[in-house]
Task: inverse folding
């Protein structure tokens, strides 16, 4: 499992940078630190876009846009999955088959396309396996 690639959903990255998120801030920060150190992290263009919008506009203590830009730029060092026309169609198929929203399905598709074995998200069904990827909610006890 040490070489397993891990896809991170937007909410995990937001919690890591949202100091008002309490225990979730610490947990998410630990996850990101592990992925930075191991080089096993995968994200997508969608995650980076959602992160930027949320941390500069929607968290209780918004991040400065320049700082958010720097964080996004740093994450470009990870394996970044670029959504394509084919990934949109695949996401629609995932949405139809599993009942997830389109946007959540696009996250799942990006994890599949990126070769992840684990998808860490608060929003998806913990323990569910889709196309060989295990969804894990790090906040579920």
Result:
């Amino acid at each position: 499992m040490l070489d397993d690639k891990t896809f991170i959903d937007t909410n995990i990255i937001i919690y890591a940078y949202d100091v008002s998120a309490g225990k979730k801030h610490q947990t998410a920060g630990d996850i990101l630190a592990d992925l930075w150190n191991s080089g096993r992290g995968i994200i997508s263009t969608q995650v980076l876009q959602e992160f930027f919008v949320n941390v500069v506009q929607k968290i209780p203590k918004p991040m400065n846009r320049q700082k958010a830009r720097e964080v996004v730029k740093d994450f470009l060092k990870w394996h970044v999955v670029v959504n394509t026309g084919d990934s949109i169609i695949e996401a629609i198929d995932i949405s139809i088959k599993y009942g997830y929203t389109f946007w959540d399905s696009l996250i799942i598709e990006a994890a599949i396309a990126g070769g992840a074995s684990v998808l860490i998200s608060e929003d998806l069904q913990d323990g569910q396996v889709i196309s060989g990827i295990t969804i894990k909610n790090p906040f579920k006890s």
